[in-house]
Write a structure and sequence with these properties.
Strand content: under 5%
Number of helices: 12
Helix content: over 70%
Number of strands: 0
Distance between the termini: 37 Å
Shape: globular
Structural class: mainly alpha
Radius of gyration: 19 Å
Order of helices and strands: HHHHHHHHHHHH
Largest sheet: none
Length: 259
């Protein structure tokens, strides 16, 4: 399979997963979200290759950041204009890919600094690693304010919204685990067996921590990873950037207006 084929398969599985998210309150079956468990690792696996081969990594990261902002604005507006107490819209895979891309860049700076004996690059990479962690501070501040009855709810909500525009490693969709997985996919991008082993080990750890959950089934991504031929395929970059927020909006509106 080429990269585009893997992304298309992941996209189809993602739709099933999000149908479950939007309709679970109305009895959507569990198998819908089970199908979606391999989706994030599949996209991260291809993203790791994309970060390596892109001709302009800065432009790539800016595009992901802008897409992350757009997703936050879209889900916030949907929740305000067409409220549905049964659905929590926290979807923003773009933020996960953006933070993963940052740590990939920090890793490359670190490796280059060690290889070329440039302490400034090593220092730059270490400081960089701290920034996405510190960026959670505004959200923690909003949480503190929310406990004060004298602080208007509108103010707290505004701070939360602004803090979500600052992607950080603590609040990205999927959490820290997926960021780590994406970076490890990049580090071992030339060693497919190690990549798959890392995925299987993480899946096993998730199962041990939560044997009643279904997240461990992300191990299913090992199959398309094994079949990846290293080719880009048709690309269709803009399609994926548009489809992701569009299908979330459509499914949310359908679940809310046509339950």
């Amino acid at each position: 399979m080429d990269a585009t084929t893997i992304k298309m398969i992941a996209l189809i599985l993602m739709v099933f997963d999000h149908i479950h998210q939007m309709y679970v309150w109305n009895g959507a079956p569990l198998w819908l979200t089970i199908l979606g468990r391999p989706v994030f690792p599949m996209f991260l696996f291809i993203a790791a290759d994309s970060f390596h081969y892109t001709k302009n990594r800065k432009s790539f990261l800016k595009r992901l950041l802008f897409a992350s902002w757009g997703m936050t604005i879209t889900t916030t507006l949907l929740s305000i204009l067409v409220p549905n107490p049964n659905i929590v819209l926290m979807n923003n895979a773009f933020s996960t890919f953006f933070v993963t891309g940052l740590y990939i860049q920090f890793w490359d700076w670190f490796v280059e600094g060690i290889r070329t004996r440039k302490p400034i690059l090593v220092f730059k990479s270490i400081v960089g690693c701290v920034i996405p962690i510190v960026c959670v501070a505004p959200l923690l501040f909003a949480g503190t304010l929310s406990m004060n009855e004298n602080v208007p709810f509108v103010l707290v909500r505004a701070i939360v919204f602004l803090s979500l525009l600052i992607p950080n490693v603590m609040t990205v969709e999927g959490g820290v685990l997926l960021v780590v997985l994406g970076v490890l996919f990049y580090i071992f991008r030339e060693k497919r067996v190690i990549q798959i082993a890392i995925l299987l080990l993480m899946s096993a750890a998730v199962y041990i921590l939560n044997p009643n959950g279904v997240q461990w089934l992300m191990c299913g991504a090992a199959i398309p990873m094994l079949l990846y031929n290293g080719e880009r395929g048709r690309g269709m970059k803009n399609f994926f950037y548009i489809f992701y927020p569009a299908h979330i909006a459509v499914l949310y509106l359908m679940a809310t207006l046509l339950p």
